[in-house]
Write a structure and sequence with these properties.
binds adenosine-5'-diphosphate; alpha+beta; binds magnesium ion; Phosphorylase Kinase, domain 1
Length: 210
């Protein structure tokens, strides 16, 4: 894989997208995803908040920075360990593309090698059974007990790994201007409890909508 020549993505179809990012499969390795901030999102944000954006040093890369910091926080807990944390998306690096700076991440895949379903996909297609429910509880226990910061624990940000566990693929880190949860484990836990409660409510609402 050539990591130095800027990647050409603009002629490719994204395999997924959320409110903020476009997600592509790496042209040289389908196990790798390339995430860029959606240019439309940048345009909209800049129009809305011109003054603020100009003053922000890291600008639209903030979302990447948040994810990377949490990734490194977890690695710092186990220095020297080779395997990444199973509950968090594995970040492989930062590269340039013709759609701007991108994060290279390990794809969570299903048994056919396609992009894994999210928790939302599972619930919406009635595939959220006892095995998936137990795996979600296991993930939530880890999320609460670990020192990672979480800001967006939505059903779109958890991917179902076919070996039977959930992986958080977005929504890590702290969005607050003053990152107080990073220095207060108590506040961090309190906030995560709230996020977990809200996720449970969201799952119930998705099930009721059936
Ligand atoms: N590592 C990954 N493995 C599998 N699917 C992923 C991965 N990262 C993202 N996706 C898919 O792409 C979607 C959008 O990616 P995400 O990083 O959540 O962007 P956004 O910030 O726009 O929400 C996710 O909801 C998920 O369906
Ligand atoms: Mg997302």
């Amino acid at each position: 894989m050539d990591l130095i020549t800027p990647l050409k993505l603009s002629h490719l179809e994204p395999v997924a997208q959320g409110a903020q990012k476009l997600v592509f499969r790496h042209p040289d390795d389908p196990r790798v995803l390339v995430k860029v901030v959606n240019p439309r999102f940048i345009e909209r944000r800049d129009r809305k908040d011109r003054f603020y954006q100009k003053r922000r040093r890291i600008g639209h890369h903030r979302a990447f920075a948040r994810e990377m910091i949490e990734h490194l926080v977890v690695r710092a807990l186990h220095p020297g360990r080779l395997a990444p944390c199973p509950y968090m998306q594995n970040i492989l690096g930062v590269v340039d593309t013709d759609l701007g700076t991108a994060l290279l991440v390990e794809a969570v895949l299903d048994e056919n090698g396609d992009l894994a379903p999210t928790l939302r996909d599972l619930v919406e297609t009635n595939r959220f059974g006892p095995r998936e429910r137990d795996a979600l509880e296991e993930f939530l226990d880890w999320a609460l007990d670990s020192n990672v910061l979480i800001n967006d624990l939505s059903a779109d940000n958890l991917a179902w790994h076919h070996d039977g566990h959930f992986v958080m693929i977005d929504g890590l880190g702290d969005r607050a201007g003053i990152p107080i949860r990073a220095v207060s484990p108590w506040l961090n836990r309190l906030y995560k409890r709230k996020k977990i409660r809200q996720l449970r409510e969201a799952i119930e609402a998705l099930q009721d909508a059936d």
